[in-house]
Amino acid sequence: MARQNPIELPISLYIEDIQLKDSIMQLQKRIKPKKKQEGRSHRGKRTVKKEALFGNITISKSVSRALDEMGYTKPTEIQLESIPVLSKGDDVVGKAQTGTGKTTAFGIPLVQSIDPTKQVTQGIILVPTRELASQVSTEIRKLSEFLPIRTIALYGGQSINKQITDLRKTPHIIVGTPGRILDHISRGTIKLNNISFAILDEADQMLDIGFAEDMVKIIGFTPRTRQTALFSATIPRTIKRLISRFLRNPSWIQVGAEIDAADTIKQIYYEVADQDKFKGLSELLSYSSKENKALVFCRTQIGVDRLTKRLRNSRFDAKSIHGGMSQSQRERVIRDYRSGTPRILVATNLAARGLDIPEISYVINYNMPGNIEEYVHRIGRTGRIGNLGTAITFVGEDDFNMMGLLAKRFGENLEKGRLNLYKA
């Protein structure tokens, strides 16, 4: 068979073909490959390569940048133990003394588990008090500052209508008290069917307040496939039942001894007659630097108001906080206290767990706490996140039984001081 010559195409078609190829190449250059979103493969396990270190913990570059902004240079013990385990997607029971950085311990894995491209609520944190809800949500926002993640705090005392408006924007993370969250669930303004990470913070205190049934109801609205973390200072029998019911093969992490005070707190006590307590307090406050914040605990709301009035009449910069005040009043006082005015905050036990201000230099038990756990949670407001602090306790005529328990528990860590007003 004779060989046929190839068909010759008009020159115009060759030109058009070259132009088409050139157009395709230009288009390919303009189209950038879509970056893989940070997300979860299953029960919280990360699916992206980590880009930075926090101590020896691998974290995302965005969270690392946020930690730099927050001034966090190295992880605390609870963070070292918890973050890697939670980042793998495992359930965790964390038992640690107050002031050890638990919020960051669960906050980093939570923030890194969120998929910002999904417009659904993926994380929920239950806390016992309004103050703690506000503070935890603030911490989560700081950790996610460089990520497109929305966080909302829900608690009583706020406008329910404003909360409903905020919920319409579908936050990725909800922080709230059980009562208010159940209120929104009953209104249909919250849907928890896409929750992939649930955290119970200060679980023992939620039980003390009476939120046990509420916690069970709320967790019941979340998928069984969720990852769950529970943090508590103590693990009573009721907490163990919750763990057995809602957590799957959790890793148990304990930092510090049973109901212990942080080793960053210097503990001192002064024996003082009841009628001399105000003189003793004035003496201590006068000697401390005007830049040092002090938190003074009284047993009752009336006692708080009376002591605050006496301090102000003696020209001390003091304000009060207790459960008899409205939520807006309490928030304003805490905001002012954070900013440096007043220097002295007089409080009932309301502030013992809900107040997280690292700059508090002194905690003063003007009235003796009722038990060791209450003592630990009071003094735990100072010496936080590696900072040094001083806890001072006044021992009156009726306080020697409790003082004996404290001395037995803390031994040589509890030093005896002597006020100048009793020196010859």
Please tell me about this protein's structure.
- The protein has helices at residues 11-30, 61-70, 77-87, 102-113, 130-143, 160-167, 178-187, 203-209, 212-220, 237-246, 277-287, 301-313, 327-339, 351-354, 372-379, 400-410; strands at residues 52-54, 57-59, 92-96, 123-126, 151-154, 173-176, 197-201, 227-232, 251-255, 265-271, 293-297, 318-321, 344-347, 360-365, 389-395, 414-417.
- The protein is 40% helix and 18% strand.
- With 424 residues, it is α/β, with parallel strands linked by helices.
- The protein is built from 16 helices and 16 strands.
- It has two domains: 52-255, 3-Layer(aba) Sandwich (Rossmann fold), CATH 3.40.50.300; 265-422, 3-Layer(aba) Sandwich (Rossmann fold), CATH 3.40.50.300.
- It has a seven-stranded parallel beta sheet with strand order 5-6-4-7-8-3-9, sandwiched between helices. A seven-stranded parallel beta sheet has the order 12-13-11-14-15-10-16, with helices on both faces. The chain has a two-stranded antiparallel sheet with strand order 1-2.
- It is globular and about 70 Å long.
- Strand 14 (360-365), helix 15 and strand 15 form a beta-alpha-beta unit.
- Residues 1-18 and 29-42 have low confidence and may be disordered.
